[in-house]
Automatic annotation (TrEMBL):
GO molecular function: catalytic activity; FAD binding
Co-factor requirement: FAD
Family recorded in the similarity comment: Belongs to the FAD-binding oxidoreductase/transferase type 4 family.
UniProt domain FAD-binding PCMH-type: residue ranges: 43-224
Protein transport is among the record's keywords: no
Name of the protein in its database record: Hydroxyacid dehydrogenase
GO biological process, one term: respiratory electron transport chain
Xref: InterPro entries: FAD-bd_oxidored_4_C, FAD-bd_PCMH, FAD-bd_PCMH-like_sf, FAD-bd_PCMH_sub1, FAD-bd_PCMH_sub2, FAD-linked_Oxase-like_C, FAD-oxidored/transferase_4, Oxid_FAD_bind_N
Assigned keywords, A-Z: FAD, Flavoprotein
PROSITE patterns found in the cross-reference section: FAD_PCMH (PS51387)
Length: 478
């Protein structure tokens, strides 16, 4: 591979071998291939090398060499992103920096309720280390067995527990970052109060590696709950689900940790492609909510709260039917229904995905109005609407009409569908990316809907911190 590189890239790759060891500089196609295609297989790029540093100091050495040779770098964690943010372009002139070898848990402080981890630690491992210390790390998402904490921070990942604990930004106290100049900023302060200037931590979280490379972080831990109780509730509409959310807040307050909305069509798709997953009610309902309470007192206390909540919801007619998980296996089965919706969509065929958020109070109106606009513009398009109702984040996805050629449908209608959905989001003062990031997938759409002032501020920050434009170019901003 290096035989075909320019003299500049050849010199850069050779210098990287000296800096981090030849075994960790991958250039052969069979070695680099897994790093060059994104998880959804929408983007495949090329790279002069895949670099696998093992320490923060080695990351800094790579960035310094990239500066000297003017080589762009694409940071990558578990490569589970959904917006193409960790995939190089097709030029072959960029280098992928895989952080998978930065996989140490540096410290756990049970009294301070913190864990300090390197960027390449897999999310599930952070959860496991926390649990071993009798603590909870609450970030939870479908890719937790392979995504890394660095990637979670770079995209400000959300997941199923944002309602109670916040997204990744809210779970982070401090960072270690290699700047675009190859310097190391040690901001690993495990403090909940630090009012000494600009909040650099928040600047790097969600920046998708465009302002620097996160190499380690101090993350918050919480006491393990004494019990979790899960239930499914059937409702007539998203408007009813919003009223049910308000009622759940009144009864459970901070004990409410999950509130997921699933349309009937979502569950029909799951049943079609995974028939072993039984529909939980005797008859179909327009919407189903999966809710979970986590209680630090006892399971009896949590169940008593649930019974009071459900009794009022059923007696008032707000909820049409409900079933409460009796054990851990049943709770897991309820969550499996929710988590298999994207898998069922994939089995059904190519589809258009949207990771949007609007104010929680607007969810019902947004779904109503956007469904109607799409039905008018493209009769037969099937809406697969589900997501984190408790924090306003919907996965508002669209499937081709039944029997249609899905690739042809996408080629003809994807741009139109995106515009209908994003225009509706914009009218409701929402966002076109709630938890997946911008990457390269939504970079043009973000520029279209953000104000000129906002875009100018972002470009000013990028130019100030990364004047050579070597940090993940083409992502977030063009």
């Amino acid at each position: 591979m290096t035989d075909t590189l320019s003299p500049t890239l050849t010199a850069f790759v050779s210098a990287c071998r000296d800096a981090i060891g030849a075994a960790h500089v991958l250039t052969e196609p069979h070695d680099t291939a897994p790093f060059l295609t994104d998880w959804r297989r929408r983007y495949t790029g090329a790279a002069c090398a895949v670099l696998r540093p093992g320490t923060t100091q080695e990351v800094a050495a790579i960035v310094a060499l990239a500066n000297a040779h003017r080589v762009a770098l694409v940071p990558q964690g578990g490569n589970t992103g959904l917006a193409g943010g960790a995939t190089p372009d097709a030029s072959g002139s960029q280098a992928v920096v895989s952080l998978a070898r930065l996989n140490r848990v540096r410290a756990i402080d049970a009294h301070n309720n913190t864990i300090t981890v390197e960027a390449g630690v897999v999310l599930a491992e952070v959860q496991n280390h926390a649990r071993a210390a009798d603590r909870l790390f609450p970030l939870s998402l479908a890719a937790e067995g392979s995504c890394t904490i660095g990637g979670n921070l770079a995209t400000n990942a959300g997941g199923t527990a944002v309602l109670r604990y916040g997204n990744t930004r809210e779970l982070c106290l401090g960072l270690e970052v290699v700047t675009p100049q190859g310097e190391i900023w040690d901001g690993l302060r495990a403090l909940r109060k630090d009012n000494t200037g600009y909040d650099l931590r928040d600047l790097y979280i969600g920046a998708e590696g465009t302002l620097g490379i996160i190499t380690a972080a101090v993350m918050k831990l919480y006491p393990l709950p004494a019990a979790s109780v899960t239930a499914l509730a059937a409702l007539a509409s998203p408007h009813a689900a919003l009223d049910f959310l308000a009622l759940a807040h009144r009864y459970a307050g901070p004990l409410l940790t999950g509130f997921e909305l699933m349309s009937d069509f979502c569950l029909q798709l799951v049943g079609k492609h995974f028939p072993q997953m039984r529909y939980p009610f005797g008859e179909r309902h327009a919407q189903v909510v999966l809710l979970e309470l986590s209680d630090n007192e006892s399971e009896a206390h949590a169940r008593a709260l649930f019974e009071q909540l459900m009794q009022e919801a059923l007696e008032s007619g707000l909820v049409e039917d409900a079933v409460v998980a009796e054990n851990l296996a049943q709770s897991r089965a309820f969550w499996d229904l929710r988590e298999h919706i994207p898998l069922a969509q994939a089995e059904e065929g190519l589809n258009v995905k949207h990771d949007i958020a609007v104010p929680i109070s607007s969810i019902g109106t947004f779904i109503e109005q956007t469904d109607a606009a799409i039905a008018q513009a493209i009769p037969g398009a099937r809406m697969v609407t589900f997501g984190h109702l408790g924090d306003g984040n919907l996965h508002y996805n669209l499937q081709a009409p039944e029997g249609d050629d899905a690739p042809a449908f996408l080629a003809r209608y994807q741009a139109q569908l995106n515009r209908i959905v994003y225009d509706s989001v914009h009218r409701h003062r929402g966002t076109l990316s709630a938890e997946h990031g911008i990457g390269q997938l939504k970079v043009d759409d973000a520029a279209h809907y953000k104000s000129p002032v906002e875009m100018a501020i972002m470009r000013t920050l990028k130019a100030a911190l990364d004047p050579l434009g070597l940090m993940n170019p083409g992502k977030v901003l063009r």
